[in-house]
């Protein structure tokens, strides 16, 4: 009886949703607060379109003189639903996540029914984390309750990146619907990189690098790499070298290990405090694993020490680089139970530094080493407790793993750990 009742409820709910969805899609309703007649399709500039997974339907957004136009229906005939919004009032939100994730979210309303169209690029997974994978989905809601979520077929997504953003900036709009200011970077209509203007400084950045970023936002990593290479060769800044190095290292279609190492060395040895530690991490990982180069733990140690501790006075670090540094230390240094420079001490300091970068796995490694050292009354624990106060405000070794959310306190902790690490390296075995 329970099973029958559950099935009945599921069928009833499904019928309601299907009916509501059908009504929502088939009503060519009026745009609620800003009703405007949609222009003919032929006069539009389509900047986003996709085919809905499992349906003979297409969703698109285009631009006209009067605003943004949303359409849904068969790709080969007239749309079932057309909605228009002036650009000044368009419900528009951007999400710019780490490592190239770019989302644009546009929401169109028809009475109490909304159509939320989200598209963007997602980072690839292993073995090609540098790939940018297109995604899109349409969420239909009524009175705040979700009726359906319709995914786009990835191979059908066509998107002119930043085209909508450029038009809104042209009309004087400065903010998204959530109040976040629009980015002020230059939006390029990219041609063949070989025919592009020479690299020069514009708004404190290299124009070739900014063109590469624009190409990457649009998902064209081949063109992006061409611009990054041009940026690296121009020697205006090392950001292009860093981005090129990552693509040569990680992207299966663009891979070139020799070029990767050359580009990463430029950034690792350079003065860029923001990207330098990350470039050193990738370079050290190549030497640690023998990826594209002969395995060389000495070179790995040098590069990873820069990633974790020694790259710059600002103490901007790469937490994962600290993890790799600890691995190198365990491989290259002989343990000595009665030594105050025990391998565990150097590894602990490396992991503790990584912990300040909110790298939880690295934090766990540092805590495990601390517990092991305390349980065995290891000499390095005594040395750490004795010296820690000489280089900062923290008074004990265990307190090095108490990470503050305050930026200044965290930076002071990093300087303290850097001093302890340098002192431990300088001490005789």
Write the layout of secondary structure elements.
Elements: H1 2-26, E1 45-51, E2 58-64, E3 67-73, E4 81-85, E5 91-96, E6 102-110, E7 113-123, E8 132-142, E9 145-151, E10 158-159, H2 163-170, E11 201-202, E12 205-206, H3 207-217, H4 221-234, H5 239-250, H6 257-268, H7 276-289, H8 297-310, H9 319-332, H10 343-355, H11 360-375, H12 379-387, H13 407-426
Antiparallel strand pairs: 1-2, 1-10, 2-3, 3-4, 5-6, 6-7, 7-8, 8-9, 11-12
Helix pairs in contact: 3-4, 4-5, 5-6, 6-7, 7-8, 7-9, 8-9, 9-10, 10-11, 10-13
State Rg: 27 Å
Query: Residue share in helices?
Result: 40-55%
Alpha plus pi helix count? 13
Order of helices and strands: HEEEEEEEEEEHEEHHHHHHHHHHH
Mean pLDDT: 83
Strand order of the main beta sheet, please?
4-3-2-1-10
The proportion of residues in beta strands is 15-25%
Could you give the count of β-strands?
Answer: 12
Distance between the termini: 77 Å
Shape descriptor reads elongated
Low-confidence stretches: 1-40
Give a short summary of the structure:
The protein is α+β, with helices and mostly antiparallel strands and 429 residues long. It has 13 helices and twelve strands.
């Amino acid at each position: 009886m329970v099973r029958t009742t559950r099935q009945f409820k599921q069928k009833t709910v499904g019928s309601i949703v299907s009916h509501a969805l059908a009504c929502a899609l088939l009503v060519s309703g009026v745009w609620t607060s800003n009703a405007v007649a949609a222009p003919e399709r032929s006069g539009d500039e389509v900047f986003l379109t996709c085919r809905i997974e499992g349906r003979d339907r297409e969703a698109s957004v285009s631009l006209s003189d009067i605003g943004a136009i949303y359409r849904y229906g068969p790709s080969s005939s007239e749309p079932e639903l057309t909605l228009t919004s002036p650009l000044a009032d368009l419900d528009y939100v951007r999400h710019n996540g780490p490592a190239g994730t770019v989302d644009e979210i546009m929401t169109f309303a028809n009475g109490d029914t909304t159509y939320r169209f989200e598209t963007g690029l997602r980072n690839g997974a292993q073995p090609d984390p540098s790939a940018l994978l297109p995604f899109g989905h349409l969420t239909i809601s009524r009175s705040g309750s979700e009726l359906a979520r319709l995914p786009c077929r990835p191979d059908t997504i066509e998107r002119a990146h930043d085209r909508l953003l450029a038009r809104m900036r042209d009309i004087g709009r400065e903010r998204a619907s959530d109040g976040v200011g629009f980015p002020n970077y230059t939006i390029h209509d990219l041609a063949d990189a070989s025919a592009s203007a020479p690299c020069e400084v514009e708004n404190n950045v290299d124009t070739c690098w900014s063109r590469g970023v624009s190409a990457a936002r649009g998902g064209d990593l081949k063109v992006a790499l061409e611009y990054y290479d041009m940026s690296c060769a121009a020697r205006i800044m090392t950001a292009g070298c860093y981005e090129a190095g990552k693509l040569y290292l990680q992207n299966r279609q663009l891979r070139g290990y020799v070029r990767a190492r050359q580009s990463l060395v430029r950034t690792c040895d350079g003065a860029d405090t923001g990207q330098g530690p990350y470039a050193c991490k990738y370079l050290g990982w190549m030497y640690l694993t023998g990826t594209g180069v002969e395995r060389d733990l000495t070179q790995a140690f040098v590069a990873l020490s820069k990633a974790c501790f020694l790259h710059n006075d600002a103490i901007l670090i790469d937490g994962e680089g600290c993890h790799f540094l600890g691995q190198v230390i365990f491989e290259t240094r002989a343990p000595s139970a009665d030594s105050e420079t025990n391998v565990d001490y150097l590894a602990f300091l490396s992991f503790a530094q990584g912990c300040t970068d909110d790298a939880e796995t690295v934090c766990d490694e540092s805590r495990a080493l601390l517990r092991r050292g305390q349980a065995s009354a290891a000499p390095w624990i005594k040395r750490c407790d004795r010296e820690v106060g000489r280089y900062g405000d923290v008074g004990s070794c265990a307190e090095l793993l108490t990470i503050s959310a305050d930026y200044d306190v965290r930076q002071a902790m990093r300087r303290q750990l850097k001093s302890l690490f340098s002192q431990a390296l300088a001490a005789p075995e």
